[in-house]
Amino acid sequence: MKDARALLSLDEALARLVAGAWPCAIADVETVSTFDALGRVLAADVNSALDVPPADNTSMDGYALRAADVAAAGTLLQVAQRIPAGHVGQPLLPGTAARIFTGGQVPQGADAVVMQEECEALAGEGLGSVRVNAVPAAGQWIRRRGEDVRQGSAVLLRGQRLTPQGLGLAASVGAATLSVLRRPRAALFSTGDELQMPGEPLRPGAIYNSNRYTLRALLQAAGCVVTDLGIVPDRLEATRAALREAAAHNDLIVTSGGVSVGEEDHLKPAARAEGELDDWQVAMKPGKPLAFGRIRRSGDGAALLIGLPGNPVSSFITHLLAVSTVLRALQGMDPALPPSLPLRADFDWPRPDRRREFLRARLNAEGGLELFPNQSSGVLTSAVWADGLIDNPPGQAIARGDTVRFLPLAALVSR
Ligand code: AMP
Ligand code: MG
Fold it and tell me: Has residue 333 got a pLDDT over 70?
């Protein structure tokens, strides 16, 4: 049967997903130790109550002094004090220097540091003296108070996902705990009577369930608490029961397979019976069929449903583009796709599809892109070989040397 429905552009589909997700946005907030906050999404800005660094300090081992006291190379200065990191010295008297070590607070009155390689320590009374063999510029080797963070400024913003360096920045302003959103709860199931789990011998006609592993890992990488409902048989009642169970305790239900128009495709009728459903044909390749709906909860509200196509590359790519966008919208994050990079094609693609294509490609050592030879939506090898997707506009042929748009997989998987 020919499908007469108009194709929806991917941008339009993503806009509708975002609009559908916002009313269900997660509002519950948790306070967690900054140690445990990796990958969590901030529920509030992190504002700094202090300047970082809190005081001027030296970025070199050497001598703190007044630049005006060293008019010429070879000037001798009395060493009046010693300031290791973590210590505060005395105000610097004119004509003296302070021996100082990286991170040590620059004493009041000093306006430059001369690195020890440009000085000669001379023994003498007390701490001796120093011959300064280079004329310093005022301000040199001093890290200024507040040059990293100004007191009162926001160092991290609500809706930002916490990276390792973000945790470090939060700690640098003294945040021992952080206010984060509760993790999204996502349920996952695969449909398909041909599916078997690894660990069982493969019976005739069967294939191993790979989507369960890919999609579960993608949801986990996005910070979800995943309820994995396994494989649901290709029957309406079983699919309805799985949707009900999934909706009860989850924000989002992700399924794979069963969204085509074949008579063994039960996801859409099941979703209609348990809630409401938009049945889309998206103008993208791979991954044309996409179902988006809401499944009623017995108590209140609804869980969002995204039905992904069954082909392993299609479900992988539609997850990266569509499910991730919904998860970001649910968490008040910017739902836009990461920026694509303009890069040179080192291949020809003479017969493009009429739909927007996401081609599996890899960067070569010359800074160009190569294409995996088999772009079929069932060839999962392509998604492992690739380090990104070429976002190719509808009907756009590519010739060697053309500039194409490249979306790194790393940016998509961790977004
Ligand atoms: P469907 O969307 O259910 O028509 O499935 C499309 C294709 O993807 C069929 O060849 C299925 O066998 C395959 N497929 C569906 N689900 C999975 C899965 N979980 N793992 C691997 N392949 C699958
Ligand atoms: Mg199927």
Answer: yes
Fill in the DSSP letter of residue 67: G
Q: Which SS3 state, helix, strand or coil, does residue 191 take?
A: strand
**Block residue for tokens 């085509």:** 260
CA 202 to ligand 1 center in whole angstroms: 15
Q: Give the pLDDT of residue 27.
A: 97
Query: Residue 130's pLDDT band (boundaries 50, 70, 90)?
Result: very high
- Write down the CATH superfamily of domain 341-413: MoeA, C-terminal, domain IV (2.40.340.10)
Q: How far apart are CA 218 and CA 16, in angstroms?
A: 22
Does 79 contact ligand 1 (Cβ within 6 A)? no
Please provide the average confidence, as pLDDT, over all residues in the chain. Answer: 96
CA of 210 to the centre of ligand 1 (A): 9
pLDDT of residue 370: 98
Tell me, using a 6 A CB cutoff, whether residue 379 lines ligand 1: no
Domain ranges of the chain: 10-28+183-330, 29-52+147-181, 57-143, 341-413
Question: Hey, what amino acid is at 81?
Answer: Q
Q: What are phi and psi of 201, to 5 degrees?
A: -65, 140
Q: Do domains 10-28+183-330 and 29-52+147-181 have the same CATH topology?
A: no
The DSSP code sequence of 293-350 is EEEE-SSSSEEEEEEE-SSHHHHHHHIIIIIHHHHHHHTT---SPPPPEEEEE-S-B-
Is the predicted pLDDT of residue 313 greater than 70, yes or no? yes
Locate all alpha helices (DSSP H) within 191-309, ordered by sequence: 211-221, 236-248, 267-274
**289 Cβ inside 6 Å of ligand 1:** no
Among 3, 195, 314, 379, say which to mutate for ligand 1: greatest number of ligand atoms within 8 Å of CB.
Answer: 195
287 within ligand 1 shell (Cβ under 6 A): no
Amino acid at 189: F
Q: What is the pLDDT of residue 1?
A: 40
Query: Mean pLDDT, to the nearest integer, of 31-40?
Result: 98
> Does ligand 1 have an atom closer than 6 angstroms to the CB of 192?
yes
Tens digits of residue pLDDT in 65-121:
999 999 999 999 999 999 999 999 999 999 999 999 999 999 999 999 999 999 999
Q: Is the CB of 309 under 6 A from ligand 1?
A: yes
CATH superfamily assigned to domain 29-52+147-181: Molybdopterin biosynthesis moea protein, domain 2 (3.90.105.10)
Level-2 CATH architecture, domain 57-143: Beta Complex (2.170)
Class of domain 10-28+183-330 (CATH, top level): alpha beta
pTM of the model: 0.92
Distance 311 CA to ligand 2 centre (A): 9
Whether the predicted pLDDT of 310 surpasses 90:
yes
